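Practice problem: predict the structure.
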Amino acid sequence: MKVGRVIPPLLIWFMPAAARLFLVCTETSGDLLGSRLVASLQEHIPNLLVRGVAGPRLEQLGMQAVYRVSDFNVMGLVEVLSELGRLKHQFNVLVQDLKQFKPDAIVLIDAPDFNLRFAKAIHGLGIPVIYYVSPQVWAWRPGRAKTLAQITDHMLVLFPFECEIYRPLGLKTTFVGHPLVEEIAQFQPDPAFDQQYPTTDKPLVVLAPGSRKSEIERLLPTMAEVARRAADRYDFRVPLVPSFPLEQAQALVGNAPITFCPGGFRELMARADAAVVASGTATLETGLFGVPMVVGYRLNRLTHFMAKRLVKVPHVGMVNLILGERVMPELIQNEFTPERILAELEKLMQPGPVRDRVLEKLNDLPQALGGLGASDRAARAVLTDMGP
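Answer:
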C-alpha cells in the first residue's frame, strides 16, 4: 500500500479478519518504543495488523505506514510555518485512514504537541485510545493531565509517581516501567571499543554535555576546565553525539586533556567510575549503568528565569526524581562551575560512605523503574483494551 494514501473502503472490507491496531509515533524515540511494543504484541497475536505513522524499526515488523516518522521531522518555527499546509494535510489523511481502518485500539506514543491534537480529533469514535509515555505534566503544563483524562482511555506510564497524577482524574493508568532497564541490562560492551580507545591506569570520568548544540556549547567548556584541573588524577572522555562536529567540539575544549569518543555513550558508561552529565534522559541511562554522577545544567538567563516559574519539581535529575531524594548532586545555572563540579566529583570518587551510599541507591534504580519486561507489560495492557 502506498505511503500517505487512505485505504480504499472496498479493500478494507475484504481484508482478512484479524486484530487491528492503529499506532502513531512521530519521533525516532517513539519508533524504538513502538517496535518493542509491537514485537511483544505479535507474540500474543501473530496475525496482528498494525497501521499508522511508523519508523524504520516498526516497518521491519510489518507495520503498514500511512506516513513515516521522517514526514514529521520538522524543526524550528520558520520551518514549521512553511510546512504547515503539508502537515495539516497529513493530519487529516491520518484521521480519515483511521476511521476506514476501524482498529480495535489506538496507541499514541509520546510527542504530545502532535498526539494531543490527534486524540482530540478522534475522540468519540468508540475506539479505545491508549497514550504511551506521559508528557512531563509533573514538571510543567499540568493542565495537560486533565485534557488527557478527557480525550484518552488508558495511560501507560514509565515512572511510578505518574500514576498518582492521572488516577485521581478518573483516567485508567498502568505503570509499565521503563524499557531502558531491559535495554541496558542486555548491553554487551564491544571489545573493539577498547582497542580504538585504550584505557589508562587512571579512574575513568565521563563528561556528557548533552545532545543538543546549545547544551554542548554551554556545558562543554566548563567540563573541559574540570579536566584541566584534574588531569593528573582522572582520565576524562566525552561521548560526543555524532551530529555535533568533532572539530567544533575540539575548539570548545582547547588544550584540555580530553578524549572524544563519538557515539560511545553506553560503551563509556559501561566502563566509567564516575560522570558529569547534563540533566535529561542521559542521567537515567548513567544511573542504570550504576555510575555515580554530578548532574548539571545551564540555560540562558531568560529561559532560566521562565523555567523557574513554570517547572515545579524538587529535583532536575531523573534519577533523583525516581528515587525520591537528592542522591546525586545537582549543579544548576551559576552553580555549574569547575570548582563546584570538581568538589562534588571528588566526593563521589573517594572510597567511603558518600560513594557507598550512592552505589547502594543506584542498585535500587532498575526495580524502581519496574524491572525487566516493560514492553511486555505495555503489550498486555494494550491487549486488555483490544478486547477478545
